[in-house]
Amino acid sequence: MEITLKTPEDIEKMRIAGRLAAEVLEMIEPYVKAGTTTDELNQICHDYMVNVQHTIPAPLNYHGFPKSICTSVNHQVCHGIPGPKKLKNGDIINVDVTVIYEGFHGDTSKMFFVGKPSILAERLTQITQECLYLGIDQVKPGARLGDIGAVIQAHAEKNRFTIVREYCGHGIGRIFHEPPNVLHYGKPGTGDILQAGMIFTIEPMVNAGRRHVRLLPDEWTVVTQDHSLSAQWEHTVLVTETGYEVLTRRKEEIKFT
After folding, report:
1. Domain boundary assignment for the chain
2. Which of 7, 14, 15, 76 is such that its CA lies 20 to 30 A from the CA of 101?
3. At residue 201, does pLDDT exceed 60?
């Protein structure tokens, strides 16, 4: 399967899908608090997507995934399945949302603090977001995918954190996951050349401890092998003629206005 360049009509639909995905994360924030279960967060997001936005929750039944969002808490790296466990003060949680609007996907995730986080959790979350932003800043026609991975890896490792290598960003459009793979490590000047019309996610997963991960028996939830904290942020990004456009920008992100 080859990388697809999106048409102007595709891009307009992707803008709407991206904005709707961002709105789900904005909507759910007040509910991310101690005593709430991740299953309750899932139900609130599901109802909002289906009944308010009239979008389709892309994760639901995707290769058998049983819920409408992913919720990854503390040492869970990604693809956490919402369940009955209650959030507690000090937890950090990634909420990963993908909506389908008129056949097009908008994919984004955000870290939330439950109450007051530890100094380590706060720093890890901040550095991971900085990794995402540094990666996005590399996006422009003529740049290479390796440029994105290299700056993300360098920033994480400079701060004594590690990059998860088993999972990566991906092309996106009518298909949830399509080429190219967007690695969060690598060397500048390597990989596919970026072209205007490409749309892909950048979604670094950064661990406080070692980079190694394992898959739980549910065959979805990925956790750190050493039980250290992990953080992730994700945006869907369009390569424009002159640089980039973040399609899943939230209102709070003045950086991209």
Report:
1. 8-256
2. 76
3. yes
E strand residue ranges, 36-192: 56-57, 70-73, 76-78, 92-101, 104-113, 162-163, 169-171, 178-182
In tens, the pLDDT along 106-162 reads 999 999 999 999 999 999 999 999 999 999 999 999 999 999 999 999 999 999 999
Closest CA to 166 of 131, 211, 209: 211
232 exposure class (CB count in 10 Å sphere: 0-12, 13-18, 19+): buried
- Other C-beta atoms closer than 10 Å to the C-beta of 50 total 15
Asked if residues 196 and 240 have their Cβ atoms less than 8 Å apart, the reply is yes
**CATH C-level class of 8-256:** alpha beta
Residue 26 has pLDDT above 80, yes or no: yes
Query: What would the two tokens of residue 35 be?
Result: 């005593």
Cα–Cα–Cα angle for 130, 227, 41, rounded to 5 degrees: 65
Tokens of 36: 């709430």
Residue 257 pLDDT = 56
* Three-state DSSP class for residue 148: helix
- Count other C-beta atoms under 10 Å from residue 215's C-beta: 13
Give me the count of residues in the chain.
257
| CA dihedral (203, 53, 25, 62) positive or negative | negative
210 has pLDDT over 90: yes
Taking the C-alpha atoms of residue 165 and residue 254, their distance in angstroms, rounded to an integer, is 30
